[in-house]
Amino acid sequence: MPNAILDPTGRADVATTVPAPAAAFELAPRQPDPSGLRIGLLNNTKHNAALLLAEIGDVLAADHAMSVTIAETKPNFAAPAPADLVERFRLECDVVVTGVGDCGSCSASAVADGIVFERAGLPAAVICSDAFAVTASAMAELRGAPGYQYLLTEHPVAVLDADQVRQRAKRLAPEVVAMLTQPSSQ
Amino acid sequence: MTVLDPDAAQAAIEHCYEQGWSDGLPLVPATQPLVDKFLATTGRGPDEEIGRLPQLDRVVTVRLAAINAVMAGCRPEYFPVVLAAWEALTCERTTGGGGWQSTSGPAPLIVINGPVRTELGFNCAGGVFGPGFRPNATVPRAIGLIVRNVYGIHPHELEQATQGLPGRWSICVAENEEESPWAPLASEAGLPDGASAVSATLLRTCEFVDNRHTSSAEQLLGDFADTIGRTGSWIFEHAQAGIVFCPEHAQLLAAAGYDRAHVRTWLAEHSGRRTSDLAAVGKDRLDGRLRLPGDGEPATEFQHTLPSDDRRNLLIAVAGARNAGISMVVRLFADWSGAAVQVTGPDAAGDHSAEEAQ
């Protein structure tokens, strides 16, 4: 009997013997009427992210009587949002807008954050550059939320000037509202 | 006498491809008896955790590193070098963050010092960046396989390199200590002279500087300063670099009174571009940490590439043949830890910690 070929991933057992993740992923409950919702903005430090989020916040405030009550910057764009940050958002806002996923690790990380916020009961709208859709979706799967929906915006984002960022924010705002208020098709 | 069975070997190699374990080249299928030989070369326990990526929730153990080192084509006695190289890379800030997933697709640079070079047959001389030497080729490949298989970072998925770079998992040079005028790189990091050790960082590319006809140390250094100051590789306020000097260049500099520290001081002062040069490529203005287009003023102001002459901003090693004045500037992905990690055998359990000079 020849020797078995060893698996180099450390996950062979996980794949074959564990049937399914313990808790299936479910989105946070949505309130259909956006008016009065408090918005949290989480900027992941990528260029133009802060401006894009702030502009979206302005549009949501003007058009839907929402208000930005917390805005923070991620300490490390590649790492998951720390628990204390998630807790602050949970206490101070009702919905979260985060991004921009515009690099190899931060796109995946932004989706991971969105899933964390949803699990904490906060509807989230994650914005990613469309060049990073594959890695963003791969992260959703890794986090036990295959098919998790996020918003794609046309690549590139970093080269846009301030006016172009504002236009982009206007285009995205209705999609953000829909994602934060509709029970979604996922 | 063992009868070799190439048909069985081919089937096993194909099996490894089918599992998605390969970096594109054939793998050595790992079996328990061979992995046990690897594990016997280290005093570290097979279940010891040696790496973790929080965003992916994945953990590297000594055992998994050994399986991947087998598959990379290492011999068992290389395994302590693989472990030291991995540990030196974990000292890099970016390898615990988004480095392995980056659009930059950075490559480890692994530098070997000490007796282990000759004991294991590492190339430190001619063609040191090239192929032909099993330890130089398989140690960095083992690192790449750990990232691929244990962290699960595959190209086009969690790995998002825009173009990557040639030789991503194959840049491993031994220092040519015999023909270097300076102390070994690991000694500069604070390890005892004669220690077998590994230093490592992440690179974005390598660029040659060919200068065979000047006898002036300052003309030679000026050639390096021009390459280090190149705008294309400069995206933040400053950029770190490294130089793998050929023996001829290192000896010319040493003969003129330059040690590593003096070389760094000279290059920190002279590497850069005027604001007008940076304006011409849209990189003259700082906004936070990024370089963006500005107004190009003051035009004659000289902006320095390196943040300072700290050794962590300019890694200097010596490798290659003594047959020509051809050296390599290497482009650091981010800041370098400056650490060198001692290579330890099976009797050194618990004594493998990274040495840090600063």
Describe the structure.
The complex is a heterodimer of chains A (186) and B (358). With 186 residues, chain A is an alpha/beta fold. Chain A has one domain (32-181): Rossmann fold (3-Layer(aba) Sandwich), CATH 3.40.50.2300. In chain A, 42% of the residues lie in helices and 16% in strands. Chain A is built from 6 helices and 5 strands. Chain A has a 5-stranded parallel sheet with strand order 2-1-3-4-5, sandwiched between helices. The longest helix of chain A has 20 residues, at 162-181. Chain A is globular and about 75 Å long. With 358 residues, chain B is of the alpha+beta class. Chain B has one domain (31-271, 306-342). In chain B, strands 3, 4, 5, 6, 11, 12 and 13 form a 7-stranded mixed sheet that branches. Chain B has a two-stranded antiparallel ribbon with strand order 1-2. In chain B, strand 8 and strand 9 form a beta hairpin. Chain B starts with 5 loop residues before the first helix and ends in a 16-residue tail after the last strand. Residues 349-358 of chain B have low confidence and may be disordered. Chain A binds chain B through residues 2-11, 47, 76-80, 103-109, 112, 132, 134-135, 138-139, 142, and chain B through 8, 12, 15-16, 19, 21, 29-33, 35, 54-59, 61, 64, 67-68, 70-71, 97-99, 101-104, 145, 149-150, 152, 156-161, 290.
